[in-house]
Amino acid sequence: LAHLKGRPLSMVRFPDGIGGESFFQKDRPKWAPDWIEHKVLGEEAKDYVIATESATLVWLANLACIELHQMPVRAPHFEHPDYIVYDFDPPEGFAFLDVSSLAFKFKRHLEALGYAPFVKTTGRKGLHIVTPIEPKWSVEKIFEVSKLVAQPFVERHSSALTLQLKKDLRKGKVLLDIYRNRQSQTTIAAYSLRGS
What is the CA radius of gyration of the chain? Predict the structure, then answer.
């Protein structure tokens, strides 16, 4: 709860158990109890569940929510993210040790700029570099600055890294994906950007 409290959540539900079919759900069910907190956000006006107490997590578990994807915002700062996620997404066959080497070099790159990032697994084959920031800036401003921060690192490691989103243009390189206004599986505690 310490990681999720106050954050809009998307649910991945497994009604027939982990081995069965699953589905992704952003909107709070219409039949949800009144005590479940929620917030309508985004251009699509999705009504996200917000976990505020342990009972909310029990309710989500009862819905067979095995995965909870959180947004990088926390109430009351829904327009101002409190962390940036840099996603190292390798192509098929790319060695995990090589991905982790790139990720930890990028972590040091961010630390040299005054950030206090940490590395976490994505639950699949990649790694996230989670970079806590103060919730002061818009999603657009953070995305713009994040690209400026990543660009020189990607240029120095262009034989292995790319910012190119289209798979057919990556040519076997690791995608350094900068999350914009998307949900993340990342769980973090909020820290401040040093020197700001």
Answer: 18
Triad 19, 122, 47: Cα angle to 5°: 75
pLDDT, tens digit, 9 for 90 and up, residues 104-126: 999 999 999 999 999 988 767 88
CA dihedral 26, 32, 33, 36 (to 10 degrees): 0
Torsion of CA 116, 39, 25, 4, to 10 degrees: 30
What whole-number distance in Å separates Cα of residue 161 and Cα of residue 172?
A: 9
Q: Which amino acid, one-letter code, is at 193? A: L
Please give the model's pTM, rounded to 2 decimal places.
Answer: 0.79
Q: Which residues of 52-76 are buried (b: 16+ CB within 10 A; e: fewer)?
A: beeebbebbeeebbeebbbbbbbee
Q: Helix, strand or coil for residue 79?
A: coil
